[in-house]
Design goal:
By secondary structure, the protein is mainly α. The chain has nine helices and no strands. The protein has two domains: 86 residues, Rna Polymerase Sigma Factor, Chain: A; 106 residues, Arc Repressor Mutant, subunit A.
Length: 216
């Protein structure tokens, strides 16, 4: 039994100091590898620490078909890919929010047309905000920024097939949210109409007063 296997077994038996031995053995090596991958000391430290924490939590699933370091590095690399993709999504969404108030204005557009356009845009953005980040980002890139599928695949680091299927699901979810919003507006409009047709308390009091005067 090699040293790593012994430390792993001791950790699984409840000896927390044994895992500290694995950390001491591989932490610097992992950091150096991640630094070359990420190009950032801060990212390398963050991803490395999270990878070690996940390795500790998932240690029972390690089947020893590879070396411990290979398994640990795979966890770290997958975390980095996930972090980088999430950061790209966040950047896309942040840029979209920044651009919301900067749409070009048609000089020939009248006040009523502008109000209608702004209401429609607000409804779309409100529906977008209900979607998961992944779906929202892919819709923004395709429908607002006009990116080609290949460019979206590159930006979000997703296979082309995943881009197409995720975009389809995102469009379906957006359409569903817009339909729900439209139905809610119709219900609210009906309620307002009914409320406007009902006599106010003042009007009702006046009617009751006239009725009393008529009976006397």
């Amino acid at each position: 039994m090699n040293d790593d296997s012994q430390l792993i077994d001791q950790t699984l038996q409840g000896d927390s100091t044994a895992f500290a031995g694995l950390v001491g053995k591989y932490q610097l090596r992992l950091f150096n590898s991640l630094f070359h991958v990420t190009g950032s000391r801060e990212d390398a430290e963050d991803v490395g620490q999270e990878a070690l924490a996940q390795a500790y939590l998932k240690l029972a699933s390690f089947q020893k078909k590879s070396t411990f370091y290979t398994w640990l590095y795979r966890i770290a690399f997958n975390l980095w890919v996930s972090h980088r993709r999430k950061r790209r999504v966040e950047n896309v969404l942040a840029q979209s929010r920044e651009d919301r108030g900067n749409e070009a204005v048609d000089p020939g557009e009248g006040p009523a047309e502008r109000m209608l356009r702004e209401e429609r845009a607000a409804a779309v953005y409100a529906a977008l905000d209900t979607l998961d980040d992944d779906y929202r980002a892919i819709l923004v890139l395709r429908e607002i920024d006009g990116c080609r599928y290949e460019r979206i695949s590159e930006i979000l680091e997703l296979p082309l097939g995943t881009v197409r299927s995720r975009l389809h699901r995102a469009r379906c979810q957006l359409a569903h949210q817009l339909q729900l919003a439209h139905q809610l507006q119709e219900v609210q409009a009906e309620n307002l109409t009914e409320a406007s047709q009902r006599p106010t308390e003042t009007e009702a009091s006046a009617v009751r007063e006239r009725a009393r005067e008529t009976t006397h």
